[in-house]
Amino acid sequence: MEQEHKPRASMILLLEHVHAMDELTDEEFGAFVRSYAHYVETGLEPAYDNDRAMRMLWKVVKAFDDMNVQKMEERDKRRREANKKNINKRWNDKKYESIPMVSQDTNGINGIPNIPTDTDGSLSVSDSVSESDKKEKCEKKNTNEVKRFKAPTIEQAKAYFAEKGYTELEAERFVDHFTANGWKVGKSPMKDWKAAARNWMRNVKDWNGGYQQTMAELPDEGDFLR
Predict the structure, then answer these.
(1) Residue 98: its pLDDT value, please?
(2) What average pLDDT does this structure show over 96-122?
(3) Where does the pLDDT of residue 208 fall: very low under 50, low under 70, confident under 90, or very high at 90 and above?
(4) Which phi-psi region, left, alpha or beta, contains residue 186 (left: φ > 0; alpha: ψ -120 to 50)?
């Protein structure tokens, strides 16, 4: 039974195939390429019944195309199998994590460990996870989580720069720069904007030719009235 053709979005034509068609006119070459593209989309082979040379050329190109299709199908099959294995592994890992650990009691019947139960046959409360334990674990997890970075407002930046003796204009430059690059240091997300601001202050003299005017060095209003 002939395999059903699956339309594809691409095709490959080697240079050696192109050079083999050097004797063709541009019109003949274009017709061959269009016929090849039509075959890739529909699976219908071009008819070269009366042209032995073109028929031989088509057989060479088609054999190469069939080989590429087979390679792609094998690659896709390997990927599907690998994905299936990964899904099964994650599923099994989750199942094992959800199974509660029960301490073994060698006094069980035929080596089967005893599971402590209440008088009515239900599992003992002492062996279940208490609500307080769950709450404690949840609080510990929240404490260990990395605090999310929050970009400063322009007012916060101005206040911090003023505290360090720098102008509001420098604070605006700082905010504009890191807003434009997504608040990143190099390629990594920023964690502490105040640390980045202090580093900015240390480097700003080098950027301005070795001098940076601070708030203390700004002229008073009286200086302009003399």
Answers:
(1) 64
(2) 55
(3) low
(4) left
Joined together, the tokens standing for residue 197 give: 């601001």
Q: Amino acid identity, residue 123?
A: L
Contact call for residues 24 and 30 (beta carbons, < 8 A): no
Which tokens go with 123? 């599992």
Q: Which of residues 52 and 99 earns the better pLDDT score? A: 52
Which has the higher per-residue pLDDT, 14 or 208?
14
Nearest to 23 by CA among 53, 64, 68: 53
Token duo for residue 170: 């420098």
Q: Which residues pair with 164 in a beta bridge?
A: none
For residue 18, give the nearest of 7, 9, 30 by alpha carbon. 30
Amino acid residing at 73: E
- Indicate left, alpha or beta for 212 from its phi (over 0: left) and psi (-120 to 50: alpha): beta
| Bridge partners (DSSP) listed for residue 189 | 184
Q: For residues 106 and 113, is the Cβ–Cβ distance under 8 A?
A: yes
Instruction: Kindly provide the residue ranges of all beta strands, DSSP E only, lying in the chain, ordered along the sequence.
Output: 184-185, 188-189
